[in-house]
Specification:
- By secondary structure, the protein is of the alpha+beta class.
- It has a single domain, classed as 3-Layer(aba) Sandwich (Aminopeptidase).
- The chain is about 30% helix and about 25% strand.
- The chain has a 5-stranded mixed beta sheet with strand order 1-2-3-4-5, with helices on both faces.
- Strand 4, helix 3 and strand 5 form a beta-alpha-beta unit.
Length: about 150
């Protein structure tokens, strides 16, 4: 198994993974965006290949912070392992790469959100060292943003 940075050629594979993550026809993974992310030193889109197929993905973004001088914190989003490849260590391998990157960039913490009904995912995240009982996450989607129009 190989964990690496996503490339434009991975767009279709990542889109298929995201279809397992969310049921939203508006999801569209563009090759141009994957190329742009590959040159952004504060963002990593990881994929995991197993037997030549992309079977996992996770997006990591560094956020600047002022609380601990220049030390950033990280946000992980869109973590998905193909349903046929779960239990093979794909997710754990991606989180090892995420932690390597965060150590190298001196992150103060890694945060992630997970849909409240994904109980198996929550157990996996806790096995990776995340604490689900320490903080509470809140989300406001763009459809609920205030508009003066």
């Amino acid at each position: 198994m190989i964990v690496r940075q996503a490339e434009p050629k991975d767009a279709d594979s990542i889109a298929k993974l995201y279809a397992q993550l969310v049921n939203n026809p508006a999801v569209e993974v563009e090759q141009e965006q994957l190329l742009a992310l590959s040159t952004d030193e504060r963002t990593m889109l990881y994929v995991c290949e197993h037997k030549g197929n992309v079977v996992g993905s996770a997006l990591l973004s560094l956020c600047p912070d002022v609380m601990f001088r220049k030390q950033p914190f990280a946000v992980v989003e869109n973590v998905i392992v193909d349903s046929t490849a779960r239990g093979l260590g794909i997710g754990a391998a991606m989180f090892r790469e995420i932690e390597r990157f965060c150590l190298k960039t001196h992150c103060s913490k890694i945060m992630l959100l997970s849909s409240s009904q994904r109980l198996e995912s929550h157990m996996f995240f806790e096995k990776q060292g995340f604490k689900g009982s320490v903080k509470r996450g809140f989300v406001k989607y763009s459809s609920a943003f205030f508009s003066e129009d």
